[in-house]
Design a protein that fits this description.
Elements: H1 2-5, H2 16-50, H3 57-76, H4 85-107, H5 114-136, H6 142-168, H7 171-194, H8 202-231, H9 236-269, H10 293-301, H11 308-345
């Protein structure tokens, strides 16, 4: 009887419980997509380090342009009917981000040992994991606060990584900065969708977030490539001419990039004109049911075979176990970040 009483009542989720379930489902999707994007980036960097690109930058740029065009077409057409196509857009964008990172590292002539490559993904992944776990285990307004803390933490990690790169000039900090940027945009998508999870699609938010990172990393790779080409000129006069032309071309490319992002957000604002066939559910992953206070307390309140004192004892026991779990998660995140930075720089 006690086991049956503690089972989640997923069919009875209503009101705030249902909203919480949608938010948790979006958080889990954000966690897996964020960690998956980091793994995709690291795998692309590893494959790129096995064989030098050499002078075949035109082929790499052509592939990145093809991935970007294909992703935009999928976003504008099939995704309007089925939001699962947004995940395909995100996967294409993550592949392009990996290629752009490989081009950037090769242009900067940075070698990336396999140990440093693996370690560079742990700090952002650990922060993303910790933030999502605290978000799921929180209740009320504290849920959004943890997301903002996570955005600030990943943004700070990205800024510190960029500053450390200019100080040490190692590929470890470049990869850490890009991974932090991926995690930061993933959390931004979760913040956007958690405002109204019944109407705002987390799939669309992750797709737009991947577009923004793709354009930033692509712009950085093209800028580094332009500087490398300009630096190989034979005379200063030709360098001045090429610099002026590169500035004009970079200005046009940045304007086109901003136009792309504005069109993506504009299309998200006109969803009523072209409705999306959503795949909404009133449940969330069962292994997270126990760790959400709202649904856990509601389940305890529905236990008709227990008295008030027994229910209060269950609530107290749950609060204590949740505090211990959060402390353990915080310690693990801090240790993982410290060890990853230490071994990645060695």
């Amino acid at each position: 009887m006690r086991k049956m009483a503690t089972e989640p009542y997923t069919a009875e989720l209503q009101g705030e419980e249902r909203v919480t379930a949608e938010q948790n489902r979006g958080a889990v999707l954000t966690l897996w997509m964020g960690i998956g994007s980091i793994l995709c980036l690291l795998l692309s960097c590893f494959l790129g380090s096995l064989r030098s690109i050499g002078s075949r930058y035109a082929v790499q740029i052509g592939i990145m342009a093809f991935l970007l065009i294909a992703s935009v077409l999928l976003y504008l057409f099939p995704s309007k009917r089925d939001e699962r196509w947004y995940l395909v857009c995100s996967l294409l964008n993550h592949s392009g981000i990996g290629l752009a990172a490989v081009v950037l590292l090769n242009v900067l002539e940075l070698s990336l040992p396999i140990k440093s490559l693996i370690m560079s993904g742990f700090p952002p992944a650990a922060v993303l994991f910790g933030v999502v776990m605290f978000y799921i285990s929180a209740d009320g307004e504290k849920r959004k606060q943890y997301l903002y803390y996570g955005l600030a933490g990943l943004g700070l990690l990205c800024a510190v990584s960029v500053g450390m790169y200019f100080k040490e000039e190692t590929a470890f900090w470049i990869c850490t900065a890009i991974c932090s940027l991926l995690g930061c945009t993933s959390l931004a998508a979760l913040v956007w969708s958690s405002i109204d999870p019944e109407r705002k699609s987390i799939y669309q938010g992750l797709a737009v977030a991947s577009f923004s990172v793709y354009l930033l990393v692509l712009a950085a790779a093209l800028a580094a490539l332009a500087v490398a080409v300009l630096g190989s000129g034979s005379s200063s006069s030709s360098n001045r001419k090429s610099k002026s032309s590169s500035k004009s071309s970079s200005g046009s490319s940045s304007s086109s990039g901003s136009g792309l992002l504005s069109s993506l957000f504009h299309s998200s604002g006109t969803r009523s004109v072209s409705p999306v066939y959503r795949t909404r559910r009133s449940w969330f992953p069962m292994y997270l049911w126990y760790y959400t206070p709202r649904t856990r307390f509601a389940s305890i309140d529905r236990m008709e075979d227990l008295g008030y004192a027994e229910k209060e004892a269950l609530r107290t026991s749950y609060r204590n176990r949740r505090r211990i779990a959060l402390i353990v998660i915080a310690v693990i995140v801090a240790v993982v970040i410290g060890l990853a930075i230490y071994f990645g720089r060695v």
